[in-house]
């Protein structure tokens, strides 16, 4: 109990650090994007397999972080997995079964926007499973992750820790901003009131699955910009990539028209409203 409150207080106190200005953030993010492209080249060349798990409370910044991480790399190499609620068929399967097909093959980075840890978090707190199922999961998850790591997958797990006031501010912003209302679900509203149930669930999850071979990396995320930069920088530090030197690129000379003329065709142009 004491450790939990200390962790949450630390996250709130850290919010006193001045926010990172946009210009500084953009410059730092650009440098990290260059390194991500270099890492991508190495992953493709070496056939490395990487699985990145993002977990955290609603509004902790998982989606924005994943967007910042993937916006300058190839979606064929960096695949984002955000599974919907399980179907009736999937509910009848072994719990982990629907996640396993999405694990990376050679030369891939798979990013889970929420993962098998749903069972330890939202499903437990919202009563979608019983305590026996949760305990079975918590006993099994280190075995699964040892098998994943044993298959030469680099498994990296992030927990984004947001403070109570900042979570409230972000969810209120979703209510007021027409661009963000889609992010706010009935489940978010129901789970919002259960802060300490989520705290207990998180603590039990860490106790069972924070292992030496697949540790949890906790990120203070009250400052979204700092959190994104810190996560990308940390991810780069976890991958032993080397720079792959590319051939110097030069555009080839274009062919000559050879008598070609633009057709007199009634193109359906998009109206130039702006």
Number of domains: 1
| Count of DSSP H/I helices | 10
CATH topology name: Rossmann fold
Shape: globular
Mean pLDDT: 92
Task: Tell me the span between the first and last alpha carbons.
Answer: 56 Å
CATH class: Alpha Beta
Structural class: alpha/beta
Largest β sheet strand count, sense and barrel closure: 5 strands, parallel
As laid out across the biggest beta sheet, the strand order is 2-3-1-4-5
Question: Helicity level, as a percent range?
Answer: 40-55%
CATH superfamily: P-loop containing nucleotide triphosphate hydrolases
Radius of gyration based on Cα positions: 22 Å
Order of helices and strands: HHEHEHEHHEHHHEH
Classify the beta-strand content into a percent band.
5-15%
Gross CATH architecture: 3-Layer(aba) Sandwich
Condensed summary:
The protein is an alpha/beta fold and 274 residues long. The chain is 46% helix and 12% strand. A 5-stranded parallel beta sheet has the order 2-3-1-4-5, with helices on both faces.
Structural write-up:
- The protein is α/β, with parallel strands linked by helices and 274 residues long.
- The protein has a single domain, classed as Rossmann fold (3-Layer(aba) Sandwich).
- The protein is built from 10 helices and 5 strands.
- It has helices at residues 2-14, 22-46, 62-70, 88-91, 122-125, 131-150, 164-176, 186-192, 195-209, 224-238, and strands spanning 49-56, 78-81, 108-113, 153-161, 216-220.
- It has a 5-stranded parallel β-sheet, sandwiched between helices.
- Helix 4 links the parallel strand 2 and strand 3 (108-113).
- The longest helix has 25 residues, at 22-46.
- It is globular and about 75 Å long.
